[in-house]
Amino acid sequence: MPAVTTVSNHIRSDGISHAYGDRPVLTDVSLVVAPGTRLGLIGENGAGKSTLLRILGGAEVPDAGVVARPARTGLLWQEVRAASHETLSTLIEQAIADVRRIERELERAADALGEGDDDAVRRYELALDAAERADVWSVDARRDELLAGLGVGDIPLERRLEEVSGGQRSRFALAALLLSRPDALLLDEPTNHLDDDAAAFLQRQLVAWPGPVVFASHDRAFLDEVATELLDIDRTRRGTTRFGGGYSDYLAEKAAERARWQEQYEAEQRELGLLKHAVAETARNINHDRPIRDGNKMAFGMRGDKVEQQKSRRIRNARGRYEELLETQVRKPREPLRFSGIPRGSHALDDDGLLVQLTDARIDGRLEVPSLQIEPTARILLTGHNGAGKSTLLHVLAGTLHLDAGSVQRRKGLRIGLLEQDVRWADATQSPRRIYERAVGERRAEALSLVSLGLVAPRDVDRPVGVLSIGQQRRLALALIVARPPHVFLLDEPTNHLSLALATELEDALGGYPGAVVVASHDRWLRRRWEGQRRELRNGRLLPAFG
């Protein structure tokens, strides 16, 4: 069925399907988002969230299905779609061109009232309604409020896009979209590049938005605070599942769903075992093994026929049920990410004393650490704005950056693992399986397979690592560390490029990690639930401990 688009005050899709070449992305997706509803899209990387937003916004045409949306529907792309030589002022004016058009139409409609046009009253009513929805009278005041709220109010509008950072460009694009006051909003990762204050400001804007809102986000705190419903796009199930409430409600329902899944799996496995036993043993256990008594051979034969029939029927029933259940059984639930502990044979470390100590450590112009001590079971969260020095400090701890002054002391035999933000591979043609075997050794790889860690899908283990997504490559890097847990585990923005489920599982696993953990993160969900020590970096200087 060809794609059809209609106008509605709702956002609606019926039977949307779309593929890129021979790779299906969306299959029969249907949803309705009423005014006042804020629907959060969640799912694995590549599940089709961005594609769905583009289709709902009219930027992409689906292969099949029906789309309905308000006439003025605004779409925020992850990347700013404007020429780098354009000014920030031009970016904003292009976004509100429709608002300016509505304003001009209201003026023309008002003039027509005095000319006695028969349709003038109706025309003016429509223009006034559109102007009120677009809030045309407060555009300039709202522009200043939005730019200030998103943290870019002090940047001159005469600057070109190429003269500001990518994060600043994204904030201006978001401000321009909100300023245009569309009847419906479609947002792709709207909190990317936002600090806590700007994210809180955006939250207030969306909660008060009168029209339908659909947004895709990996920001669990934002999903929890903004979404009234969640749509889980799961290609493994060939469909979508809708959940009421925010992310906390979603987690509770997913936990209950997994418990039901596990219960059904275990019940089916027990039944399969019993049926297999029944097929093999019923013939022996149904009686008629006793010897024939003299004088009773005729009766025995009659009873024997009935027993044989009964036996055959029971075996057929058991075999039929066994084959049916074998075909329809649910697959085993994937085990959540868990650390198994320091492998046997590794350098043994006692629980006393320090693992790492920095004293008056300094890298000129980048980092200054008066003191930092890491104990065997430390849990340290590093916070601070972009460029504050978090990644630099992690590299110093890992030994990949050298100090200009001061000292760093590490326990003898200490093994340190660093999960970097940017993963690079020496040979992009190598498969994850081969990289894993070389990193952990063939014996370890055989005892603890890459797939068993739950981080790399079976379909990806033999593909060239260079063709995998950023998220898939980062999960492989994490697997290399998980397979041989270090004494000190350093993680730089660990939830970036991970699915919501895996990010949550990783955080849960870190709580029980059998060594020291140091995490640098902007993730508000992670930071709000952190139970260990907190250290803030400000302009490269590590402040005293708190929390």
TrEMBL record:
Which molecular-function annotation in GO is an example for this chain? ATP hydrolysis activity
Classification via Gene3D superfamilies: P-loop containing nucleotide triphosphate hydrolases
Q: Which residues form a coiled coil?
A: 85-112
Among Pfam families, the record links this protein to: ABC_tran
Q: Which SUPFAM superfamilies match?
A: P-loop containing nucleoside triphosphate hydrolases
Q: Which UniProt keywords apply?
A: ATP-binding, Coiled coil, Nucleotide-binding, Repeat
Q: What is this protein called?
A: Macrolide transport system ATP-binding/permease protein
Source organism (scientific name): Diaminobutyricimonas aerilata
